[in-house]
Amino acid sequence: MGNIKSKRPVSGIFQRKRSQSPQTDKAIASKGTASNKTPTSCGTSKSNRPFTAEEAPYVLPADLSEVDRLTQQHYMFRALLGSLHLAPFRKKLNKALDVGTGTGIWCMEMAEKHTDCQIVGVDIATIQPSTVVPSNCTFQVVNALEGLPEFQDNTFDFVFQRAMLGSYQDEQWPVQVAMYKRLCRPGGTVEMMEFDGHLKGFGEHGKRLNDLTEKMCLARGMNTYNAIRGKEYLEKEGFTDVHEVIKRLNFGSRHGNMGTLAVQDFEDLYKGLGVLMVQFNFIGEEELKQLIIDWKAEVEMEENETYIDLYVMYGTKAGEEEESVEAAPLADPVPPPSSSSN
Ligand SMILES: C[S@@+](CC[C@H](N)C(=O)[O-])C[C@H]1O[C@@H](n2cnc3c(N)ncnc32)[C@H](O)[C@@H]1O
């Protein structure tokens, strides 16, 4: 787990009872009642890990443990890619949007690198800092599934999303990408960075965790293969110069710091996803704890070469803009933070 352990909900998040059954959860997104100004409601679970919104189908808790996990995962992404993003920009950035910003760390680091650019991060959860935020960075608590009407068409030079696999139901993916297109100016860029929803090279415990994740997501109306279809969605929306870059993340301490971090990240991820797995009676709480322990041992065994693919998918919104100040992604060879193995 991360360094700070707390069962307290992150400040600003209120607790409210959420629906208990997968069937009810499938209808969540169509309700769409989130305020765009105040923190949204959240449910509680038997595990006391609070969730953010009843009106969004998101599958992970919003608490300090998750903030820790997302922060560590951010550095892992950055070290894996050597950059905060992969798309090159044709023009100097004036305005960028991060949808589902989480802790807001991506926005803050982008704001520091692009000091003339206004960076906006939106999320249903209020887990972003309210102080120590660069002056060109702002956060808004909104439900992106409501279409982000607070932003006009063609507003952003760069629209970004990362790790939204557990946020959008099947039919919502193309709708969200169409929304990104609306918000992006002609000549601007949309980039999506997503893990494949499935571990590869697993043993029996990895397979069980894969299967449970898939089952829980399906109960929530999410096919775990959707997130990596970004290239297809962008092409369908008429984006040009569409690219897909796949980076492999290997698990296990024999792969050094990154391999250890990957195991830690997924251990914490499974604990988070496990809240709904248990709530939906797909596995018992104690059984899940043991399964995660067994999986951690399994990935260390030489015969298992567990890995996951990270997909980076980006394209340009068709339209004007010939002037090019081609800026390759900022090289960012920062090593990952040292991991605290448990
Ligand atoms: C796995 S986290 C990724 C956070 C961040 N993009 C990152 O890479 O660190 C997914 C985030 O999406 C947010 N989210 C889920 N559904 C959302 C929605 N309908 N509108 C806005 N944010 C949403 C969650 O609250 C969470 O912070």
UniProtKB/TrEMBL annotation:
Residues 32-49 have a biased composition (Polar residues). The keyword Transferase applies. Coiled coil: none annotated. The keyword NADP does not apply. Residues 1-49, 322-342 are annotated as: Disordered. It comes from the Eukaryota. Keywords: Methyltransferase, Transferase. One of its GO terms (biological process) is methylation. This is S-adenosyl-L-methionine-dependent methyltransferase. It comes from Piptocephalis cylindrospora. The lineage of its organism: Eukaryota, Fungi, Fungi incertae sedis, Zoopagomycota, Zoopagomycotina.
